[in-house]
Amino acid sequence: MELFGYDIQTIYLFGLVVSGVCTLLLILFGDFLDGLFPDSFLSPTLVFSFLTFLSASGYIFEKILSFTSLITFLIALVLAFILVTLLNVFVLIPLSSAEESIAYKEEDLKGRIGRVITSIPVDGFGEIVIEGISGTIAKSAKSFNNEPIPYDEKVLVIDIKESVVYVLPYQSMNQY
After folding, report:
1. CA end-to-end span of the chain, whole Å?
2. φ/ψ (deg, to 5) at 56
3. Band of residue 131 on the pLDDT scale cut at 50, 70, 90
4. Rounded to whole angstroms, how far apart are CA atoms 68 and 81?
5. For position 37, what pLDDT does the model report?
6. Do the Cβ atoms of 168 and 133 come closer than 8 Å?
7. I need a surface site. Which of 62, 83, 92, 101 has the fewest CB within 10 A?
8. 122, 173 in Cβ contact below 8 A?
9. pLDDT of residue 176
């Protein structure tokens, strides 16, 4: 079959090359495009993946199957949709949430409860550890009220200045 004066296999091959070049450009300039399309359903990664899968499967099916070009196109279209959906659900979404879960801001530590692993002397520094879903964070600590805090005491993070957390001994509501 011919479309616009070109053989359909040539069109599929041309689409594969163009989508491959666009994918390469997406790798190089992806951050810029993410700024243009923030949190869009039609992300450039999904669009170019769909076009690549459609072109590649259409070209291969035209070569090996003896169906009409319309049926071959519909099969390639369904296959590309399924592959892009699987790519999005099992690769892209988990990657985007994994990126966010391992990063933290120091300001996020305010209000968290930790445990002293190096006792904090009066007007001195010690060390605390804060455990959470994203892992364990060890930080230098200083007493907020300049009072000593012994080893293995639970503490509440009050403030953070220059990567040092200022803490108070933590009394849970069950003690009252």
Report:
1. 83
2. -65, -45
3. confident
4. 20
5. 63
6. no
7. 101
8. no
9. 46
- What are the Cα distances from residue 104, in Å, to 65, 97, 172? 52, 13, 25
Whole-model pTM? Answer: 0.54
Of the pLDDT bands very low, low, confident and very high (cuts 50, 70, 90), residue 1 is: low
Residue 74: CB partners within 8 Å, gap ≥ 6? none
Look up tokens 């163009």; give the residue. Answer: 18
Length of the chain in residues, anyone? 176
Q: Strands, E, within the chain: which ranges? A: 2-3, 6-7, 113-118, 125-132, 135-143, 154-161, 164-169
Q: Is 35 helix (H, G, I), strand (E, B) or coil?
A: helix
Report phi then psi at 79, rounded to 5.
Answer: -65, -45
Q: Which of 159, 91, 84, 166 is nearest to 125 (CA)?
A: 166
